[in-house]
Amino acid sequence: MPGGRYHNLHFLEMNKKMYEDHGSIMRLPGILGKPDRVFTFNPNDMEIIFRNEGKWPIRQGIDTFDYYRKQVRPDVFKKSSGLVSDHGEAWAKLRTAANPIMMKPKVVKAYIPDIDSVAQDFIKKIKLLRDEKNEMPADFQNEMNKWSLESIAVIALEQRLELITRDEDPENQKLINAVKDFFSLAFELDIQPSIWKYYRTPKFNRLMAAFDVMT
């Protein structure tokens, strides 16, 4: 929280400070609709946790993602949050269905030509973008976003979005911006303290709009 003992500390520095203050295990009370959290700084504890969580584990997901799928667009997602945010039996059913496909090397191998095609396009793009010092432009991160999203699309959608090769398409950039908003805003709303569960903040509305674009 602003003004608190750990305010503005880097994530690693914050965890180090909490360990020094509270020892190898501590409980952080939940605020603003968030559940209590237990932190353990002993890696051996993780084995105990994983061996005792049962076949239907409960793990914290992305609440805004869950809200969008179940409350805003149940017509599309049938009130399912998917493997990212579902828990319990619903998660187990999805995992059971996905594992036989995801864990087969033969299935993974089938995507190599498409992934390689994306990589080759990106290499060509890099050669075009380099300046006389062989350095990338200041906005090269945006090009990296295009490459990663294109790579995901050929697996998840089994089609090319042409994000790398069609620079001037405003719809492509709109999708990339929506993904960037998702990562930044989900962190602010789901990890950091936020009142979005009580009041629809501007950042919450912006994230819902980003989900609309991605959907």
Can you describe this structure?
With 215 residues, this protein is mainly alpha-helical. The protein folds into two domains: 1-52, no CATH class; 61-214, no CATH class. Helix content is 61%, strand content 4%. It has eleven helices and two strands; from the N terminus they run αββαααααααααα. It has helices at residues 11-22, 43-52, 63-72, 74-77, 82-85, 88-102, 105-110, 112-129, 140-156, 170-191, 202-214; strands at 25-28, 37-40. It has a two-stranded antiparallel sheet. Helix 10 (170-191) packs across helix 11 (202-214). The longest helix is centred in the C-terminal third of the chain and has 22 residues, at 170-191. The mean pLDDT is 88. InterPro entries: CYP11_CYP27_families, Cyt_P450, Cyt_P450_sf. One of its GO terms (molecular function) is oxidoreductase activity, acting on paired donors, with incorporation or reduction of molecular oxygen. Pfam families: p450. Keywords: Heme, Iron, Metal-binding, Monooxygenase, Oxidoreductase. Its cofactor is heme.
Give the helices and strands, then pairings.
Elements: H1 11-22, E1 25-28, E2 37-40, H2 43-52, H3 63-72, H4 74-77, H5 82-85, H6 88-102, H7 105-110, H8 112-129, H9 140-156, H10 170-191, H11 202-214
Helix pairs in contact: 3-11, 8-9, 10-11
Organism: Pseudolycoriella hygida
Protein name: Cytochrome P450 12b2, mitochondrial
Pfam families: p450
